[in-house]
Amino acid sequence: MSEARTYGRRRRQLPTATASHHVPAAQKDLAHPEVLSGTVVATGSGATSHGAGWDAMEKAASASGSDTYLKVTEEATVIKILSDGPFDVYNSHWIDEIEEGSKSVRCWGTPECPLCAVGDKAKRFSACFDVITLEDPETPTMKVWEAGIKIARQLKDIAIDPKRGPLNRGDLYFTIKKETKKKSVEYTLERVKERDLYEEYDVEPLSEEALRAFAAETHEWGDRVKELLDHEAMQEVVDLVTGY
Ligand SMILES: [Zn+2]
């Protein structure tokens, strides 16, 4: 998810043709929207019109699960966090040579990680939370929110504070928004009490029934939205990085 990428990208020189041929299918992270643009570009040459390309994109988007993730925008989105901690936490490698599919590759998190082994550092941190977004207040929707380290630490502070937490306290909502700066993206998190929700954001609180139904669908600790690449796929990424 591009909004969380705030670190500088290293440029490694590699011939384009080589790079595109080495992208393993497993590398395509279908949960991420940038995959789709890659797919459209790749298949668009045969399309009769650009309209067909956009149709294909929307089709692929709804089929691929790219709706899984909460999209944080410049406008504050009201969310309800469903559990008191992340269900998954990991670091990712950023592989600029990957031209099709997500450039972010989940670090194995062990000394055996092939990318760590060749000296690539996993620089992007993600903490995944189940949230209900009230972006469209009429249609509360459950999403996975991938928070970066700064926001994750703010959430932790609230979670462990008996006066402000837990995160999934019944009367507690949050807003999240982003601001895109020249070289980085800044996120702003705010707590909102249920009683202020309508007045401040024109949003009606969720009914207990709706909350219960959503809460029954949450992930458990250890569930993974972003899968690890297997040895073979990882080796292809390593080859891409090292230029073999
Ligand atoms: Zn790694």
What does this entry look like structurally?
There is one protein chain. This protein is an alpha+beta fold. The protein has one domain (14-32, 69-242). It is built from eight helices and seven strands. The chain has helices at residues 16-21, 33-43, 50-64, 114-117, 149-159, 194-201, 208-215, 231-242, and strands at residues 77-81, 88-94, 104-106, 124-133, 141-147, 172-180, 185-193. Strands 1, 2, 3, 4, 5, 6 and 7 form a seven-stranded antiparallel β-sheet that branches. Strand 6 and strand 7 (185-193) form a beta hairpin. Helix 2 (33-43) runs antiparallel to helix 3 (50-64). Residues 93, 107-108, 113, 115-116, 122 line the site of zinc ion (ZN).
Task: Record the SSE blueprint.
Blueprint: H1 16-21, H2 33-43, H3 50-64, E1 77-81, E2 88-94, E3 104-106, H4 114-117, E4 124-133, E5 141-147, H5 149-159, E6 172-180, E7 185-193, H6 194-201, H7 208-215, H8 231-242
Antiparallel strand pairs: 1-4, 1-6, 2-3, 2-4, 4-5, 6-7
Helix pairs in contact: 2-3
The protein binds zinc ion.
